[in-house]
Amino acid sequence: MFTRHLRRQWHAFMHFYETVYVPDHAAPLNRWVHFLSNVSALLFCGLGLWYWNIYLFVFGVWFQLGPPYLGHILFEKTHRSIDQSPIYAALGSWYTTLQIFMLRQSVTHGPKPKSGE
User: What pTM, to 2 d.p., does this model score?
Assistant: First the structure.
């Protein structure tokens, strides 16, 4: 039963990701801002935890929120994904970063076409 619920949630997220999140992040500069922001957030939050330094940790949280918001204002002129679902939008940002690290997406060009498309 729990597995079925997770599967439904995953499909709902992927529908949001493909129909709302990816088109809302089409500008290459905005994609770079999001990617570098996530990497910086991981770095500074990790350093903040390692050194027990609240300032580094807060700086990392700011990296997660501030630059992507500015990227939407400057490069996309929209932030429809956040308006529709802030949780799925945040998950989409981290999912995209994971996909980039796994070489399934390009920072500049977005998701790679699936085989057969």
Answer: 0.85
